Structures are given as C-alpha cells and as structure tokens.
Amino acid sequence: MPVVDTLITHAYLVLESRSATASERAEGLIDIEAAQQAGREIEDGWLAIQHGRVHSVGTSAQTPPEAARVIDAGGRLVTPGLINTHHHMYQNLTRAYAPAVNGTLFQWLTTLYPRWAALDEESVYLSTYVAAAELLLGGCTTSSDHMYVHPKPRLIDAQIAATGEIGFRFMANRGSMTRSVEDGGLPPKEVVQDEETILADSQRLIETYHDPAPGAMTRVALAPCSMFSVTESIMRATAELAERFDVRLHTHLAEDKDEDTYALEVYGRRPVEYFEDCGWATSRSWVAHYVYGSQAENQRLAAAGVSATQCPSSNMILAGDTADAQALRALGMPVGIGCDGSSSSDSANLWLETRGALLLGRYQHGPASMSARDALNMATLGSAANLGWDDELGHLNPGACADVVVWESAPLALAGAQTDPVESWLRSGPARPWHSFVAGAQLIDASELRLSGLEDVLTRHAAAAAAIQGLNA
C-alpha cells in the first residue's frame, strides 16, 4: 500500500536557500559545497508529499516511501514555491496602458485612478484569477495582494473566490484610502471610503475568511494604502484592529522622494517617524518598496521586527531607486520579493523578479555581494517572513507545506552549466515550472496549467479590460 501521495525522485533539492556563512567560507567552502554539507541541498534526492505536507526527503542512497504517484525529475532543480508579497492584482485590467506608460509614479497613479473607479466584483474576480494563473507560471505558489481601491463593496470576497477556485494560497490585504483629491490626497472621491466603513469591512473579512490554522489557504491582512491617501487616524485604528485580531499589517513606505516633502508638510514628520508614531513599528508589519529610509531609520525598523518587500521590475520601470536589500538584510531585516501591480511592472513573474533582485544587488554592491541563493532566499524564506508564515512556507523541510516547484529551462539555456544548479537556474533562463504543487495539489503538469476555466476567464477578462480602459465606445 502507498505510504505517501506523491514522490519526486532524481531531483536537485533545495530544502532551504542560504548562502555559505562566514564560518563556512573560512573553511574554504563555496556556496554549493556549504549547502550540501549542511544538508540544505541534496543532489540526486527525493521528496515525498503526503496530505499537503512534505512527508520526508532523502538522498539516492536512502530508500524512499512507497507512493501512489512517482515523478522522475530527471535531475531538475526543485525548490520551495516562490512567494509574492506585494501586488495589486486588479491592475492587470490596465496592463501597459498607453497614456500612463511613460509617467512618473504620481502621474501614473493620477492617470489610472479614474479608470480603476469602474472596478466591480466581476472585474476583480477575473483580474485575480488571471493574476494567480500568471503567478503560477512564474513559480509562485503563495501571494498576497494589496487591494486598496474599493469603488464597490465585497471586492476582496471576489478575490478569495477566485484564488479558492484555483487552489492558490492567498493572503488578502484589505487596503484602504480615505483621503481623496478633495482632501489633499491623490485618488478621486469615487475610490475612497470613510473610516467606519473600512474598519467594519476589515473586521468582517477577518471573521469570515482569515484562517490562522496551520496549512491555511486563505489569510487576511490589513493594509492602508499610503500616507498620501489615508488619514493618521485610520492608520492608528487599523494597527489597533490588527493587534486585536492578531493579523498582519502592510502599507507602502518611503517609496518616492516626494513622500518626504509631503510627510513633512502634512504631518510634520519624516515618513518613517510617522509610521512609528502611528504604532506600526512592530513585527506584524511589512512594508512595500522602502527605498528612502535613513540608516538610523533602517536600524530602528529592523530592531522593531518590521520587514520589507523589494519590487525590482516596478522600481526599474518607474525609474525610481530601489530598496538596498542586502544592506537591510545585513541589519537582520527580512526582505521579500514582490512583482507589484501589473500596470507598473506589466508582468507577474516571480522568477523574473528574483533574477531582478540578484542583478540589482550586484549592481549596487559588486559581484561578490549577492548570490543566486541570496535572491532565492528573499523569494522564499524572506517573503514567508513578510507574511508571518515562515514556520511552514519558504522551505521544504519535513513538515512544511508542500508548495513545491520542479523547474525547467530550455536545453540551450543550460548548455555548459554543470557545477551549480541554483546559480545556473537564475543566471540563465528564462526558467519555468515543469511541475508545480500547492498544498500537495498539482496545478502545473508538464509546464501546463491545470485550470479548466482559464480560457473562459481570459475571454471575459478581455471584455472587462476594454470596458475599464474606455475602449468599448
């Protein structure tokens, strides 16, 4: 009788992605040697999945359990599923929107806000379904989403319906905006809400959907958009609500140089000082972008347990600066990776973002400053820490959630790559999932999505996108 559901054999297993430590390097070990000696990586290994969890792992010299299904990885790289910690999924309805593609961040936002005012449950369901499918194709198995535009009620309910239908692990971020252009903010009045409505709906979503249990498929975080679009009172009230229900907190912070000027003029404080004064400098908070913190502010937030998300493609497309991920990580701050909204980065591919993080880190600090394992660590354990989920996500040690990706690259892309499968995976490419599992369920098989409803969703999504972009007249 089979002992486990699925057995993956003949794989190069990355159970936990870490570069060699200082002591390992002092012994003369390079990254791959250190990882294999420490048991973080296994060459020609096997991994068994049972009841949505990693049951066991082993070397080719160890006998694996009997399995109902065996997948021969053929020497392919197997990693934990990548984790996306900053996105605005609804924005794929305005992907590469021509009037906004060459604008600054603020120009881009003010151009698109009026378009997003037409969002409804149908369009949000479709955009979330498309986003989750696209993320899967880039090796992502868990994503958060910062949904802060609410022209209609129950939009996050539609998101959770879409991710639940797919079987995609999801942390819904109940975003909010209270400050419209009439109140000195950026968004139009149609997409902001009053504080009472925001707090009541936040509590409803937590009580209805948030699952704190191990192995959860859906969790909820609270996420006021930014200091440009919410009041200080909703920041404070949201932090208090998150404390009461023990959920995560998320917002944009120190993303743009104009934020300093705005914060000093409106709040009389720098952005990080404002963030701290509102009660957000805690270990339940993770922040998107975090580009312009001072060294002292970085140290304070790291000491408080705050974590950050880098969004490489979005930063480069909008031609801003980017978070110094390696400097923040050196302070002990977990740093994850996000693709950001589809309208700014125009792609939701976590392999691409992980490679972008590698390139940016080396560009900032030199060739010895960042390895592929550092970047993979950000996309797995770092991102899991962003979501407060690193106990069971971001690694493949026995007992972890069975969110597993078996990677494939074109033979030409890997020709000559024979000494380090992890570096080869990220330096060459593009790579894509050959097989992908979420909670032990296979969602990609032989590089094809197992989503029977995708074709219909794409047809409906095209119509919804045309309507929102004003192309139906």
From TrEMBL:
Alphabetized UniProt keyword annotations: Hydrolase
Stretches that traverse the bilayer: none
Organism domain of life: Bacteria
Keyword Secreted included in the entry's annotation: no
Keyword Kinase among UniProt keywords: no
Amidohydrolase-related domain location: 77-411
Coiled-coil ranges per UniProt: none
Gene3D superfamilies: Metal-dependent hydrolases (3.20.20.140), Urease, subunit C, domain 1 (2.30.40.10)
PANTHER family: AMIDOHYDROLASE-RELATED DOMAIN-CONTAINING PROTEIN (PTHR43794:SF11), AMINOHYDROLASE SSNA-RELATED (PTHR43794)
Protein name: Amidohydrolase family protein
The organism's taxonomic lineage, starting at the top: Bacteria, Bacillati, Actinomycetota, Actinomycetes, Micrococcales
